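hi! just following up on the protien thing from before. the input was this:
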Amino acid sequence: MANRLNTSLLAIGERRVLQALAPRLPAWTTPDHLTAAGLVGAAMTAAGFALSHWSAGFLTLVVAGLFLNWFGDSLDGTLARYRGIERPRYGFLLDHSSDLIAQSLIVVGLGVSPYFTLPSALFVLSLYLLMSSYTYLRVATAGVHRLSYGGMGATEFRILVAGWSLFACWLGPQVVEARLWRFSVLDVTIGTMSAIAFALFVLMVRQDLSRMDRDDQESATIHRLPTRRSAAEPAAAEPARELPGVSAG
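and the predicted 3d structure came back as:
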């Protein structure tokens, strides 16, 4: 199993909450039930965003869906470890496939809401999928499962989505209608931030590749070193030479 690395802003407090919740769940609850609940929460979030075109009151469905997504997605692995019923390969594939589906629903739902634009949502989703892909590559090549970047993990992202929606609802439609030339100010801002994040991603990949290349070269050098005879090891005796005309028998 890969080593899990979570340096997000809320990681320590979140871990304590999850470890306190796991023993209190009913015995019939399984990690798969929680994974399914997380997907239901993502679908609720997307539906709430779509319905908010008719009433801002549906933002309560968005917040409830994000909470349910956090509850199911964050607690399924904790419960499996607490009960000692981990299935590493099955759990890894199920959990992260569900994450990709859930985050796609949440981000696209945000994009079709009155509080964001679809181009900006697709910028965000593309970066999420890019970082997810690299995370899984690092699991395979370095045995490290990194769950956060720049202090931002899945929990912080959910809070950001909920906070933005409520802020945009309070601010009004100008949050998406403001224009810079022919473009939405929101799209220009998110696009610029995405370009910066992409450049940082490329830099991070280069640093990781340099480190792996250096480690591989050092490992290859060690394997190529000749085996030296120990000073205390006696030299192998040479076969005795026969003197001319003297039989060895």
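The beta strands are 3-5, 144-146, 179-180, 183-184.
Helices lie at 11-21, 31-51, 59-83, 88-111, 118-142, 154-171, 174-177, 185-224.
cheers
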